[in-house]
Input
Amino acid sequence: MAPLKVLVGVKRVIDFAVKVRVAPGGHVVQEQGVKHSLNPFCEIALEEAVRMRERGEAAEVIAATVGSRQSQDALRTALALGADRAVLVELPGAGPEQGAGPGAGPGQGAGPPLVAAALAKLVEREKPQLVLLGKQAIDDDCNQTGQILAAILDWSQGTFLSRLELDPGSSSVRIQREVDGGLEQLRLQLPTVLTADLRLNQPRYATLPNIMKAKKKPLEVQPLEQLLGGPVPPPRLRVLRLEEPPVRQGAQRVESVPALLERLAALGRI
Amino acid sequence: QSTLVIAEHNNETLTPITLNTITAAKRLGGEVSCLVAGTSCDKVAQEVSKVQGVAKVLVAQHDAYKGFLAEELTPLVVETHKKYNYTHICAGASAFGKNLIPRVAGKLDVAPVSDIIEIKSPDTFVRTMYAGNILCTLQCDEAIKIFTVRGTSFEAAPASGGSASLEKLTPPPPVGLSEWIDQELTKSDRPELTSAKVVVSGGRGLKSGENFKLLYDLADQLHAAVGASRAAVDAGFVPNDLQVGQTGKIVAPELYIAVGISGAIQHLAGMKDSKTIVAINKDPEAPIFQVADFGLVADLFQAVPEMTELLKKKHCGSMLAQDCWKVRCAPEDIIGCSWPRAGGMASPSHTIRAVAGTLPSCGSGGPSAPNLSSISGAACGQSMSGFSWNTLRFSWFLQL
Output
């Protein structure tokens, strides 16, 4: 089988270690001056694609994102981690750190349906046999984009991926996925959309030489309207309010195991 | 207004989260229908028809539904929707629902809403973002609202008392894009993680998979499910289905005991709605202590076995108090709470096993509930002077 062309969807998110705050007004979170990174699940998806290319199973790895100009950071990281080229599908109006642009989802930036629609257009243009995504972005925690994309394309889908094997000589992949009770194995016809779970692989770190090389790799910017061939549809989910959940009272220290059990018994918990 | 709930099951029994989802569906108002699709699901359809609040059960049976693949189920849901024009379509936010619902939404060109924790009105929902650190109230302007429901945020609908009508659906032709091959499911006699009243979870601090036995022993005393942090799963100590957190399972038991878990944001996202949280960690700076109700700074390899032993003795103690057992309290002879605690009568086999432990009794409690702190290891096997109160009433046990 000829090596595959792989499209990897990535997202720039607030770094997982940042304590997220609601911005004044209560409709968006504080983004300014906050560390952003590549969504960890996207890193895993990208790593899998890069390994496929290193094994000779993939011919080309294209990283794509839908977002503001800032999302170029995520694409440069993706290039440093091994993607061959990158495409930024730029949201209109979402200038530097402007928060929600048109078509905003329940988080900031574009929501999963719009991202999936944009990626579907890229698939039409690039004709990959495999699209790899993270199973969810750690900002909106939606866990939808891969499934919606597979629906739009009418492709098979493999979510919560923990192992990927190409079937030699055939046009399918064999995957293992994480489900509530354990693991299951599926065979999926190519082309397919796969979403990476935590244990698919251990992503590599970007090395300094690779970060330098990434600056020379091609990064295309395409406005979303142009890619969609029409105006960006309005958002269909409206954020009425964002708030921080009530803070739990901190621990009462107990000195010993019997003391702990006594407290739990007093509460009727044991 | 009408809602379609997509039932999750294994052709044998209904998955509990479906009952929570039905409660959420009822809260919307309007009629609730349930779609049961599988390879052989008459039994499950019967089960669903008895759930309170379900008006209609739609049953679709076909070999193509083997493995409950989203590719095969989606056309069925879409066809069913075309026939009945629902205002809402939902499923539990489990691996099944998360896989299926967005695909259905994609086919119907609707923006789905993931993992809702509250229904404000038929078009306004609350969900969490950023690993549970932000609550988002959002209004869905779609003609059809398609969403998944967090099981721990809604009560389970009563599984009996309902009498829904049953209707067979004609499955649309198979899609054939994917094929289910096999599965490796973890077998356990313990309660299911997401619905257990008590959860004992272990983290990297356990150091190895073998050491998780300490937690299983503790869990046995508490009738608890066992969970794990991502670090413990990634390290290969336990299988993935034990993971509690942002990307694993969301739990909200009455009691959550975090053992050797530092408390990464993504883990807290999966358990911070628990009613009482206990943290046992030797690092006093561990972030888990910031969300725990009770924190014990201790070496888990000492604290956990001690806790297990004390609980064994507590069970023995409550039996002494409630059932007036007059037996030696050899903890290894007593298995968890399987003893009859109310009613006072044990089966003969229990009695024999208890008596086989023989005198003298343990504990120093009286007829009242035993004071835990007084039941220490040293008390076990001490003189039985404190127990004359029950000797006469139950001496016949000893005659066996």
